[in-house]
Write a structure and sequence with these properties.
The protein has three helices and eleven strands. It has helices at 4-14, 98-102, 146-152, and strands spanning 42-43, 46-47, 70-82, 85-96, 108-118, 129-137, 156-164, 169-174, 180-187, 190-194, 198-201. An eight-stranded antiparallel β-barrel has the order 3-4-5-6-7-8-9-10. A two-stranded antiparallel ribbon has the order 1-2. A hairpin with a 5-residue loop joins strand 8 and strand 9. It is globular and about 50 Å long. The two termini are 21 Å apart.
Amino acid sequence: MNSLLSILVVVGIGCDKFEIEDTGSGTEPGPGSNTPPDNMPTENGLPDWSWNLDETGCEVQQATGVAGPGAATYYYGMYTGGDGSYVGYEQWHFFANDAWEASGGFDCVIEWSVSAVETDPGACAACDLNVAVQFAINESKSTCPEDLLEAASASSSERYDILRTNDGDAQWYFGGSGDQFGNGSWHSEAMNFITPKSCRWF
């Protein structure tokens, strides 16, 4: 995965069946937008921000005003480790809208195994952690249709800059552009993120 953004492009142009445009919803789960509910599950001692996500709002394409097959999607990542190296996973969650379900679509996830090592600072000068990440598709834990899996299956890399606050929140940025792509939580042995909701059209 060259980056979250490039995977969106690859999937959009790499599959005959799934032609996707990103409309973005502005919905931002995670720290800074809400407080974890008491019944939210945890993983590695952190709130599981992929739990109970908003699956609505992706029935009608904003660009055309026409209903069509699509999904509400999010990226979620979980990293564990320390002392300069981390392992974990990243997931792309799809929540099928009514039109996609009617044509055979379904809720699904694509998962990558990840490993990361600390590296030189990137574009985020204020960030306190910078990592170089390697990705490999985990087909055994991915449940999406083969068309989507094929477009996302290449192993690749990315650099992230992470700004961690004393209250346990984490802001995640692309190391090259400096653009923020997610929010999450952290402690000394783990960190995670969730991206804003994005509508994908097939």
